[in-house]
Amino acid sequence: MISLAELLVTEFQVTQRDLDKSISYQAKYGGYLEQILVNLGSLPEDNLPELYSRYFSLPIVDITDWIERDVPQIDSESIELLKAACWTPLSVADNHWTFAAKYPLDLSANEFIRRNGITATILIGSEADIQTLNARFNVADTGMGDDSVIGDEEERLRELASEAPTVNLLNSLISRGLRQGASDMHLEPYQGRYRVRYRIDGVLHEVERLAPRMQLPIVTRLKILSGMDIAERRRPQDGKIAMKIANQELDIRVSALPLNEGESVVMRFLRKESVTYDMQVLGLADDIQQYVNEDLAKTAGVILLTGPTGSGKTTTLYTFLNELNNDDVKIITLEDPVEYQLEGINQVQVNSDIGFDFSAGLRSIVRQDPDIIMLGEIRDKETARIAMQSALTGHLVFSTVHTNDAASAYTRLLDLGVDEFLLNAALVSIVAQRLARRTCEHCAQPDPEAADLMAKYDLSSLADKFNIKKINLVKGVGCEACGHTGYKGRIAVNEYLRCDEEIMKLPKDSDFIAKARKHNSDSGKRNLLEDGFYKALLGQTTVEEVLRVAG
After folding, report:
1. Of the segments 122-131, 268-277, 351-360, 541-550, which one has the largest average pLDDT value?
2. What are the phi and psi torsion angles at 148 (to 5°)?
3. Mean predicted confidence (pLDDT) in 207-227
4. What is the reported pTM?
5. Quick one: which of 155, 208, 201, 214 has its CA closest to 186?
6. What confidence score (pLDDT) does residue 216 get?
7. What is the largest CA-CA distance in the chain?
8. Are 332 and 375 in contact (CB under 8 A)?
9. Is the pLDDT of residue 515 over 50?
10. pLDDT value for 150
11. Three-class SS of residue 186?
12. DSSP string spanning 193-262?
C-alpha cells in the first residue's frame, strides 16, 4: 500500500521540500500531515476528499443524492457528537449506518461506532458537504406557496436562503459544474422535482433532481447574490454574480424566468482564466485561416460572423481582434453585455434603459477616431447603415448577424433596409460558424462504421476534392477524461464567403443565395456541412456530431 507521503508527492503535486517541512513541523507540534500542507498553501483544501478517498479506498459522497432523502431519526446528543467530529449519518437500517465523514479515522466518531455496536459504511466528504448534510437535521418546511411574498415572508425567505444547506448545496452544484467544464447550469421545475442540468460542450446533461422544497431556497439565494428582487416571481429578471469557488474567480450571468410550476433559472459561467483567444485554438481549417488572415490585413471594410446563439461568434471575433491588437491601432467594441475584458481594447456596454443602444453607441464610437470597431450584433437598420458607412470612411468593422449560412447574411441585411450598393461597397467577407464537439483524444478509436459512413455521405469524393491524403474517421468510446461522452472540447465548423466581384455583380434577389453558394463551391470553398465532414475525415470530430450541428 502506498504511503500518504508518497501519494501526496506523486498524485497531488506536493513538492518534496514542502513535504519535508511539514513532516518536521508534525514531529515537533503534532497534527495531520495533509492539514499542515493545507495551512502552508502547498495542498488545496478542495483536494482533501480525493486524497482521503484514494488513500483509504473509500468513495466520495454525492450530497445531491442525499440532501433530499428522509432524515434518519437519531437522538440529538449523537448528532452533536458526530457534528463535532465532522461526520454526518446519512441512513440507518437496523444497526447498519451509512456516514459521510471528512476524516474517517476520527477517534470520537469511531469510538461512537464501537460503543454502540454499529456496522458502518463510510463515504468521504468535504467539510462544506458535511455541514450541508448535517444541517438537514435543523431544516423545517417553509410552508410558503408560489405567490408573490410580502411582509414577514420576505424576511423568512432571506433567512432560508442564508442557511447552510442552501448555501452549500448551491456551491456544490456550481463547483461540480466547473469541474465538469460546464458553460451553463440550468435549474427548472420538472415532473414534481427541481431538475439540474449542465451544458457541457454545447449539449445539456441532466445531473440531479432536487427535492421540491429546495426550489424556493435555491432560487432566492441566487436572486440575492445576483441583485434581483426576491419578492418578484411574476416577471423575468436578470442579474450578475461575482464569486470565487474552487479557487476560481467566476462571473455568473443569471436569468430567472417564471414558469407555471415555479421559476427556471439559467446561470452562465464566465471563467476569465480559461478563455484563450488564439487562432490555433479556434480550429479554423488552414485554407479558411489563410483567407481570414488576408481579410485581417485590410484597413477598411466589414467582416461578419453569422450563426445561431451559442455558436462561438463572439469568441471568434475576440480572437480576430486579439490578432490585430497592438500599440499602433485603437480598437473599440460595443457589446451587450461585455463578457470578457480584453487587455488594450476599449470595450463599451450598451444600456438601452438610458437610450444608449447599438446605433447610439456606434455614433459615439466613430467620433473617438478608432481604427477598428467591433459591434456585438447588427440588430436594426440604423446600426447596419452606420456600420457600412464607417467601413467606407476607413474603419475595419467586425460584427455578427443571426443567419443560417454566409450568403443569407446579405438577405438579412437587405431585410433590415440596408441599400444594396452599401453592402457591395463595404462587405469584405462573411464567415458562418457552428461549434462541433471534438473527439476525445484519450479514448478515440477507429470508427467501426467508417466504411458505411464513407459510402453514405460520399466522403471519398470530398477527400479527393480537398486533397486529404489520410482518412481518419474516429469515435470516442468514452473515458474519465471526457465524462464518458466520447467528446472533449469544441472545434469551429465554418463556411467562408469572400465578397468578391462576382458576388457584387449578382443581383440580390430571390435567386441570390443559391447562386452565391454555387459560386463559393466553384471557387473551391466548403459549405458548413462539408467543412464539418472535412474535419471528421481528419479525426477532429465525428460524422454524427457534424450532422447534429450542421446537417
Report:
1. 541-550
2. -60, 140
3. 85
4. 0.69
5. 208
6. 86
7. 91
8. no
9. yes
10. 47
11. strand
12. EEEEEEEETTEEEEEEEE-GGGHHHHHHHHHHHHT--TT--SS-EEEEEEEEETTEEEEEEEEEEEETTE
